[in-house]
Amino acid sequence: MREDLFQKTGLIVSRLAQDLLCKKVGDRLDSISEYEKTYGVSRGTIQNALQFLKENNVVRFRNRGHMGTYIEEINYVLLQQYSPKNNLVGIMPLPYSKLYEGLASALYLKFKDRSLNFNLAYVRGAESRIELVVNKVHDFAVCSKHAALQAKKVAFPIEVTLEFGKGSYLSEHVLVFGNKGHKSISSGMRVGVDKNSYDQRDLTEMVVGDKEVEYVDIRSHQIIQSIQEGKIDVGVWNLDEILEKKYQDIYVVSIEHPHIDEFSEAVIVIREDAKSVGALLERYINVDEVKTIQKEVKDGTRIPSY
To answer: Which CATH number fits domain 88-169+265-299: 3.40.50.10490, 3.30.390.50, 3.40.50.1110, 3.40.190.10?
Structure first.
């Protein structure tokens, strides 16, 4: 059956499948003339491709005369098989916390339930993950809402397709000190900052403000170790990891800031031109169900699976 995809009609089947992934039952199908202009092929080629999809039980249409043709049934699993990219690959942070493990588990479960080809990769640094999506290495990336907003400000061609709410990326960022007597950053302190991390860098600059400090360039996951070794006095880091790993000889202080919530919310970003990917994600990922699975993994009532 798939040998047809090596022929001209098969190429149009592939492009139609990608277009139909963005549609749902009840949507109006583009006219044959519109598809002719879009794909630059003959009317007969379009008709043959649509007929192929119907005969293979991918879609079923209903003609409503002058009102046009509408989708009556649609099989997204088969559509994905015939689309140009028949698997979906996402990228998210390394699952070093229960929240990340819960999010990864939820994404895998949602796509496994639909029998869709799906894989996750793991890379530190939101900017690196977003660049991999923009460069078409991966289809979507998980990052904080703040990172997504910052990436758009510097003209990355991305858009947010799903938002999971406050506390879904991490429960809280905190100031981490090596001295129990410190409650806030003061001038003269050595402050750890990761210039490659939207979240850690921007939040650090927000809490430092106009104080005269010494910035020490460091990878964000080395903040705790650097404080314990006396290389820095303070750094911004994730409370989840601190609590789960039960670090000793450090002291944490909550951060108060008007925009703090956007650092704790997980979102999924896609390329602006990847509408079919966005449609798949929105169709198959239920935000409330993801948050429930996350909570179960965090609470220890569900074993992580990713």
So the answer is: 3.40.190.10
Structure confidence by residue, pLDDT tens digits, 147-172: 999 999 999 999 999 999 999 999 99
What are 36-76's pLDDT values in tens digits?
Answer: 888 888 898 899 999 999 999 999 999 888 888 999 998 88
Host H or E run for residue 262? helix 261-264
SS3 139: coil
Cα separation, 203 vs 205, in Å, equals 5
Beta-bridge mates of residue 87:
none
**209 Cβ neighbours under 8 A, 6+ residues apart:** none
154 residue type, one letter: V
**How many CA atoms does the CB half-sphere of 159 hold within 13 Å?**
12
220 sits in which H/E element: none
Of 103, 13, 185, the closest CA to residue 193 belongs to 185
Predicted TM-score of the model (pTM): 0.79
Could you please report the per-residue DSSP string of 195-218? TT-HHHHHHHHHHHTT---EEEE-
